[in-house]
Amino acid sequence: MRYPDLPLPPVAGGFILSCHLNHSDPLLAVSHFDPQKYHDALAVEWRIPLPARLQQAVNKRRAEYLASRLLARSVMAELGIDDFILTNAPDRSPCWPAGIQASLSHSAGIVVVAATRQPCAIGVDVEQLMSETTAQETATLLMNEQEQQLLQTLPISFSAAATLLFSLKESVYKALWPQLHQPMDFLDAALTSVDFAQQSATLRLTQHFSERFARGTLLEADFMWQETQVITLVSHRL
Question: Which ranges carry the 4'-phosphopantetheinyl transferase domain (predicted)?
Fold first, then answer.
């Protein structure tokens, strides 16, 4: 997985700082935005209405919503679906067009979207590097003893390794939710291997969710670092 480097058409106004994609499959796109430059008139200008639940939300939350919907529309246009507006199901999961498997994540001024027409369970996540204190405090909730030992072998700090693990498990959850609509615990998937040179990893389900996602099912993932952020992508062919 490489960091998206093909520019999408620029957006005037200073809110969207950059927007790039790559044409891999799954297609991956990333957008950087400035929450301080958000104002409600942008949503009107770009014909992306804010839902009622965000009418009283803080600007940061509305900025994330607008930036993510704008990137989703650009990605769908690349797949031949014009003027797409991403909405949410009652469980807050995104409603993608028929025949499209996709996932979205945002964090601190960045939005990432992954999408494919292939029959895949797909999940993408972006996380900011957690502090060493947070990594230590959440270790027992996030990882088992074997995972902790594996993370300590990686050529990065424990906080960076814990951030990677957290993001990988978030991507697993996002990939499986549209298929199962079942909640998952962090320990329901275990990291079994990491190839840091190839930026790839494998996770194994430790619980039985369905015939397709039985205990022991292996899920392949890719990851990449960009400054203090990590992006992870899980894609599992159905």
Answer: 121-209
Domain count across the chain: 2
Q: 84 and 130: one domain?
A: no
Q: Is 69 annotated as a binding residue?
A: yes
Residue 174, annotated as binding a ligand: yes
Report the CATH number at residue 20: 3.90.470
Q: Does 181 show up as a binding residue in the annotation?
A: no
105 is in an annotated binding site: yes
What does the pLDDT look like over 14-33, one tens digit per residue?
A: 999 999 999 899 999 999 99
> Which residues, including other chains, have CB under 8 Å from residue 117's CB and lie 6 or more apart?
79, 99, 100, 101
Residue-range definition of the domain harbouring residue 109? 6-117
Which residues in the chain show pLDDT less than 70? none
Tell me whether residue 1 is in a domain: no
Residue 18 placed within a domain: yes
3-state secondary structure of 25: coil
Pair (93, 162) in one structural domain: no
Residue 164: C-alpha distances to residues 127, 156, 169 (Å): 8, 10, 9
Tell me what pLDDT residue 118 has: 96
Give the pLDDT of residue 92: 85
pLDDT for residue 2: 86
The answer to whether 170 is a known ligand-binding residue is: yes
- Three-state secondary structure call for residue 209: coil
In-domain check, residue 30: yes
Q: Do 98 and 159 fall within a single domain?
A: no
The packing angle between helices 158-180 and 132-142, to 10°, is 40
- Give the 3-state secondary structure of 50-102: CCHHHCCCCHHHHHHHHHHHHHHHHHHHHCCCCCCCCEECCCCCEECCCCCEE
**Is 107 flagged in the annotation as binding?**
no
